[in-house]
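User: Working on a comparison across species. This one is DNA topoisomerase IV from Pseudomonas cavernae. Can you predict its structure so I can line it up against the others?
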Amino acid sequence: MTRRLLTALLLIALPVLGQAQEELQLQAEYALDGLPAGNLSGLAACGAGLWAVSDREDDRLYRLTSADGRLQTEVELFQVPPVPTSGLPWGVRMRIWLVSQVRGGELDFEGLSCDAAGNRYLVSEAHAAVLKLPPVGNPEWLALPANLVRQARASGLLLHFNALLEGVAVDPQGARLWLAAERQQRGLLALHKPQSTWRCAGGCVLLREAGDEPAPAQLEVAPQPRDFSDLAFFDGKLFSLERQAYRLCRRSLSDGAVERCWSFAAAALSESRRYGPQTFGMAEGLALDAEGAWIGLDNGSQRRNDGEARPLVWRFAAPAGGWSAGK
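Assistant: Here's the predicted structure for DNA topoisomerase IV from Pseudomonas cavernae:
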């Protein structure tokens, strides 16, 4: 390759690389009271409200309302119907059950999304299932394709305990659904509902990725496994939360490929916001709107350097040009 050609390629690549390193600006930080079990595991912007879920509680959601510069929590209780057969191996299901007897949260809700009709969707990592909570009426489990888990495992996804489904996103019409496989490998599963039945168009697996990637320089640690910790659908685009990389990314609906990423490492890894063991204080929930992003943290009831021990929600400003800029 000639030097002139190499220079030209670098000039083309530099704007893309610059976009990937753009830092989101932190506007506000909210410590949440009213989550006695802690372990915030999902966020969703539903209409004008913000909702949260904990993976330690199987019977409630939390509506977050702003008052006096704080986010207050209101509990919504629900009753879960019998869980459908997941297709996960017996050994994985047994390990999940045993752990739940110690820590709570047998369903292990790890993600939350909603459609324009007010339906909320919670993904259960323990059962590889999605629970739909309508604004009126009884909750029900979605009838997902019988071969969903089988296809995912054949592609190298959902193979490891505690590394199963970690996020869910639904479009406003409630007709398209995406699920995130957490790590080792990580991936995206895509489903659609042309009429009344959920199906996979041309296969359930939209994306799968293995391997490690560099952690933010502030951590001074070895590369970490690629992961997803939540999904969000906004303005016709799919967004992924990637906790180990301290970033969120916009992804193509056709193949899950990255279109653009934004980092929040500068704010998250400031000295006062750090936790001792870096396995705590990780970003677990993502919700987007035109003005910015909400990111929820699971602190595992641990204290960070400034003494704060409650679950946290951060508010970041949207990037210049909005979330769809730089297509």
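For your comparison, note: The chain is about 15% helix and 40% strand.

User: Helpful, thanks.
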